[in-house]
Amino acid sequence: MGFSDGRRLAGVYFAEVRRTRRVTPHMMRVTFAGDDLARLPVRGYDQWFRLFLPREDGTTDFDAVPESFGIGGYLKYLTSRSGTRPPFRNYTVREHRPEAAELDVDFVAHGDDGVAGPWAQRAAAGERVAILDQGRGFDPVDDADFVLLAGDESALPAIAGILRDLPRDARGLAIIEIPATGDEQPVDAPEGVEVRWLPRAEAHDRPGALALAAVRAFTPERPERLHAYLVGENAIPVEGRRHLVAAGVPKSRIVFVGYWRVGRAG
Question: Running DSSP on this structure, what letter comes out for residue 224?
Fold first, then answer.
């Protein structure tokens, strides 16, 4: 299952905020709870979903949330009342505890910028959300002898999930750009996978530039056996993929998705 397969999945899962905490200066963790989370499929790696949030004015119509996100489902959402339909953003499972019916989700928090980040900073226990499971984008490649993972802070939850679920004998490199040194998080990486944290030196440094430079500096020993995962600010997957293809990596072995773009709202 890859990113493009998610639209074929169906099923809405409702939950509510149980607690929140700031895990690093630029990351908020929201723990959701509810009986539906006990039956939410556990797909591992970078399992992602569409998160439908409550509106600030309290007029959220969760009936507008579609059962799937194909053409029909998206039209249902778009034709619902604009003044009450819930805003949504795409997020990654940070940790799922079905036995406790809990789900942790990490939100990048940059002040008042965006929709979901500000909501996570003010979220109160009991607020209701809807989750539309979309599968996962990373599928292990059996003959890969090296895994390259690269992204910025928006990709940290996805990369952390992949590191957690990789075979313990995996070899590779994880490049994670973060806003500041204090934004590093503990990750469960195989011993043979180097985790390289790249904090931006200045607040005005262009997000994604450090991660992209590290990808460009990487030369695969056996490009035909590399499995790459490039996500985050748009330049990382687009330019990073171009570099790897030029180095001989088959396009089919590169997962690349731009989560966001500098200068454009999410």
Answer: G
Query: In sequence order, what are the beta bridge partners of 12?
Result: 132
Instruction: Provide φ and ψ at 15, rounded to 5°.
Output: -155, 175
Pairing of strands 48-52, 172-178: unpaired
| Domains of the chain listed by start with CATH number | 3-133 (2.40.30.10), 146-260 (3.40.50.80)
Which two structure tokens, joined as six digits, stand for 63? 């009936």
- The values of phi and psi at residue 70, to 5°, are -75, -170
Starting from the edge strand earliest in sequence, which strands make up the sheet with 95-97, in order?
88-92, 48-52, 128-133, 12-24, 27-33, 102-108, 95-97
Residue 157 and residue 120: Cα distance in Å, rounded? 15
Question: Which residue in the block uniquely carries the two structure tokens 């493009």?
Answer: 4
Contacts of 253 (CB under 8 A, 6+ apart): 141, 144, 226, 227, 228
- Three-class SS string for 101-119? CEEEEEEECCCCCCCHHHH
What confidence category does residue 263 fall into, taking pLDDT thresholds of 50, 70 and 90? Answer: low
HSE-up of 241 (CA within 13 Å, CB side)? 17
Residue 6 has pLDDT above 70, yes or no: no
From the number of C-beta atoms within 10 Å of its C-beta (0-12, 13-18, 19+), residue 199 rates as middle
Q: How confident is the model at residue 203 (pLDDT cuts 50, 70, 90)?
A: low
